[in-house]
Amino acid sequence: MEKQSKHWEDVRDLFRNWREENCRQSEDVVDLWKEVLANHFGKLGDEGWLVLEQVFIAALDCHSMEIANFCLSKLNQEFPDSMRVKRLKAMKYEALERYEDALDILDLIIKKDETNAASRKRKVTIYKSQGMIIEAIKELTDYLRIFMADQEAWMELSDLYISQQEWNKAAFCVEELMLHSPFNHLYLQRYAEIKYTQGGYENLEIARSYYAQAAKLNPNNVRALYGLLLTSVHMASNSKCPSQKKKESIKLSEWATNQLSQLQSSNDSKLFSSQILEGMGNLQIGNDSKN
Amino acid sequence: MASSCELSKLAYSKIILHAFKYPHTSVNGVLLANEGSSNHSVKYVDAIPLFHHNLGLAPMLEVALMQIDSYCRTAGLVIAGYYHASEALAEMSPDIVSQRICEKIAEYFPNACLVLINNRQLAKQMTHTSLSVVQYCDGGKWKVKDKENFKILPNNDSALDSVSNLLSKKLYKKLVDFDDHFDDISQDWLNVTLKSMID
């Protein structure tokens, strides 16, 4: 009901926001386009082409092929020789699972323009969609040899390695990200998660220090706080841990518990952190080499 | 060896809603049964959605399972199964992460079931249950459960109607999984308000 009373300018601004933040709100984009913006397309000016591209991709996501075809034909009319529009056509084939046709178009684009990063990345997603993770990894590593500063690509590669349980390689990708942005608490937290999953006492220690740094940079990062609590308690109960580090770990776990309590006190959800300390030993999923 | 496996309307609805909320990533969650359930006939009464990012990482999984375990002890339930929807449309076999998690669950609840969502059968108007079930047997083997031994309560058709109704109201937007909870700790992973809308 809210959407129907939205003014087209508000929707336009909302779409602009979503484009800038790279949000994946496909269902909302398609709905708002149908209800509001489609009727005011003429008023958008040059921004209209960006909106068409955005709606096209959202429509593919929702498999609304009619809307997707409408957007693509309008874009094709206006920009008949554009590589960018050709890439969108390849995405349409991807959505229709016509992967060979999609790859043909992308290879053509790359042949004409070797610096076209986006087309290379689409090839990775085509492999990924078909479950061909090894090929996707190879394509992405080749891409990163050329486009080394692409943080999104390093993150994607890290995710692919995690799905293959290649912890060292996944960690390496996150190390590249941390070099780019050493104060990004999310990268630090992700690194800690990989190290923890890898298992072993040394990795546990590394995980604890990265969780601690992440929590220091952002004390509201719930995963970092829980991670700090988890790693500290495991270290404190581990026979390999020297007594100095044990005391340190206990202090850290207390700090993390306090932070979590403070965050939870503002709502009435159940607080399980004290029970977490009790039940600590029971449910270890990671490698048995942890102890 | 459990001969039959039933899924309550609540558990089934939550599984489907979770898959619909995050159609572009893999999702997973655990299934809960009443404490003291026999191995001959397991009835899953609830499902707790876990994650939609990096399902293979251990720390948050351990934290989530500990919290669910605590909840189970207060509610007379036990973690007895696991569900998973793959990221890729066509993927139909359980990946290594799902297997390992379900094996762990089977240590505490023998013959735990691993429920896989068949992505291709999902639709806004559900006509198939869109689930396939494998069961963990002693010796580390996975046995596929036939359709006769697996049903949704009260019966498949009314469950499908009920879920289609929920989907048309877009109630999947209200579902909270553990990833949502860790992003915003005020969100309720027990989905208490959603439960009343489903019943």
UniProtKB/TrEMBL annotation, chain A:
Pfam families: TPR_EMC2 (PF22890). It is a peripheral membrane protein. InterPro entries: EMC2-like, TPR-like_helical_dom_sf, TPR_EMC2. It is found in: Endoplasmic reticulum membrane. It comes from the Eukaryota. Keywords: Endoplasmic reticulum, Membrane, Repeat, TPR repeat. Residues 86-195 form the EMC2 TPR-like domain. GO terms for cellular component: EMC complex. Its main location: endoplasmic reticulum. Part of the endoplasmic reticulum membrane protein complex (EMC) that enables the energy-independent insertion into endoplasmic reticulum membranes of newly synthesized membrane proteins. Component of the ER membrane protein complex (EMC). Belongs to the EMC2 family. This is ER membrane protein complex subunit 2. It comes from Daphnia magna. The gene is EOG090X0CGE.
Automatic annotation (TrEMBL), chain B:
InterPro entries: EMC8/9 (IPR005366), MPN (IPR037518). Residues 5-137 form the MPN domain. It holds the Pfam family UPF0172. CDD domains: MPN_UPF0172. Belongs to the EMC8/EMC9 family. This is MPN domain-containing protein. It comes from Daphnia magna. The lineage of its organism: Eukaryota, Metazoa, Ecdysozoa, Arthropoda, Crustacea.
